[in-house]
């Protein structure tokens, strides 16, 4: 009865030996069965190996993972990219819907192009909201937008923007895009950040650095021609983007940040 008790959708009729269509195919029944009598939808049953990650080593790993914005010119080899993608089969997804598809840019010209177009799209968007017409109105309506800071940031960003500056991609040799059919009420955005986060952690165990990239997701949402250029299927939205590469920098110290506020109820 372990499978019956662990099933999140009460889909198993043990007497009839059947599984009804409320099943979300999460495979908990496969995972829990000591007799290996329930088979997965695809592939074989693989016995779990005990994990070697201790709480202390996870804490050390977490403290050492920092956003990487400085990469060596070395490419990330195809086998490593495949390994990162293969491991995504283990990551959680709301209702086990698993809507995400992955697009990986590794060609220099493609990365230079996504960098340039993201920068241009963002400069245009910030230009619109910090224009002399809109800015005074928005400052009243949305004071939290910190428009003055945004305007100063834009000035700096524009001044630094050259084809060589790579302000968005930081010359990373690979850019991972996590996309799915656009949904207003679904949880594809959460799925994408969970998958990108696990990928970032796994990458760090392989000695690779990563950078979540909100610039790219924002620009991709606004700019249809970018979605077309990078082969994002019609109706899909890029929910998370991750730069990946061999880090040029090594961090030696913890930055001493505050833990979050917590309430126990
Ligand atoms: C959702 C998300 C989007 C981010 N977008 C960018 C980005 O577009 N460009 C960038 O350089 N860093 C980006 N970052 C990295 C943050 O700036 C970084 O996590 C933060 O400064 C803390 O530094 P740490 O990651 O080294 O701890 C993003 C981080 C997250 C979680």
> How large is the share of residues in beta strands?
5-15%
Global morphology: globular
CATH class of the largest domain: Alpha Beta
Distance between the termini: 34 Å
Low confidence ranges: none
Please give the largest β-sheet: 4 strands, antiparallel
CATH evolutionary superfamily of the largest domain? NADH Oxidase
Tell me how many strands there are.
Answer: 6
Assembly state here? single chain
* Mean pLDDT across every amino acid position: 93
Distinct ligands: flavin mononucleotide
Helix content: 40-55%
CATH topology of the largest domain: NADH Oxidase
- Give me the number of helical elements: 10
Strand order of the largest sheet: 3-4-6-5
Keywords for this entry:
single chain; alpha+beta; Alpha-Beta Plaits; four-stranded antiparallel beta sheet; 6 strands; binds flavin mononucleotide
Question: How would you describe what is shown here?
Answer:
The protein is built from ten helices and six strands. The mean pLDDT is about 95. It has three domains: about 1-55, Alpha-Beta Plaits; about 65-110 and about 165-245, 3-Layer(aba) Sandwich (NADH Oxidase), CATH 3.40.109; about 110-160, no CATH class. Helices cover about 40% and strands about 10% of the residues. Helix 5 runs antiparallel to helix 7. A four-stranded antiparallel beta sheet has the order 3-4-6-5. A two-stranded antiparallel sheet has the order 1-2. The chain has helices at about 1-5, 30, 55-65, 80-85, 110-130, 135-140, 145-160, 190-205, 215-220, 225-230, and strands at about 10-15, 20, 100-105, 175-180, 210, 235-245. Flavin mononucleotide binds near residues 69, 212 and 215. Flavin mononucleotide binds near residues 212, 213, 214 and 215.
């Amino acid at each position: 009865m372990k499978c019956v008790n662990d099933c999140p959708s009460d889909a198993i009729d043990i007497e009839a030996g059947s599984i009804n269509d409320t099943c979300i195919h999460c495979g908990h029944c496969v995972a829990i069965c000591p007799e290996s009598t329930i088979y997965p939808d695809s592939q074989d049953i693989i016995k779990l190996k005990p994990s070697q990650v201790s709480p202390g080593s996870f804490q050390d790993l977490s403290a050492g993972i920092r956003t990487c914005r400085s990469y060596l010119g070395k490419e990330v080899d195809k086998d490593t990219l495949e390994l990162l993608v293969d491991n995504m089969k283990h990551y959680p997804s709301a209702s086990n819907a698993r809507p995400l598809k992955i697009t990986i840019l590794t060609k220099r010209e493609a990365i230079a192009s996504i960098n340039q177009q993201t920068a241009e799209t963002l400069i245009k968007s910030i230009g619109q909201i910090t224009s002399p017409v809109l800015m005074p109105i928005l400052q009243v309506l949305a004071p939290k937008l910190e428009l003055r800071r945004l305007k100063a940031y834009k000035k700096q960003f524009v001044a630094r923007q050259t084809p060589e500056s790579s302000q968005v991609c930081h010359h990373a040799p690979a850019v991972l895009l996590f996309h799915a059919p656009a949904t207003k009420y679904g949880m594809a955005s959460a799925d994408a950040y969970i998958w990108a986060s696990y990928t970032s952690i796994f990458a760090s165990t392989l000695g690779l650095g990563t950078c979540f990239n909100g610039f790219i997701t924002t620009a991709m949402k606004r700019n249809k021609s970018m979605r077309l250029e990078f082969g994002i299927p019609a109706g899909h939205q890029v929910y998370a983007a991750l730069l990946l590469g061999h880090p040029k920098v090594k961090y030696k110290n913890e930055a001493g940040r505050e833990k979050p506020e917590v309430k126990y109820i």
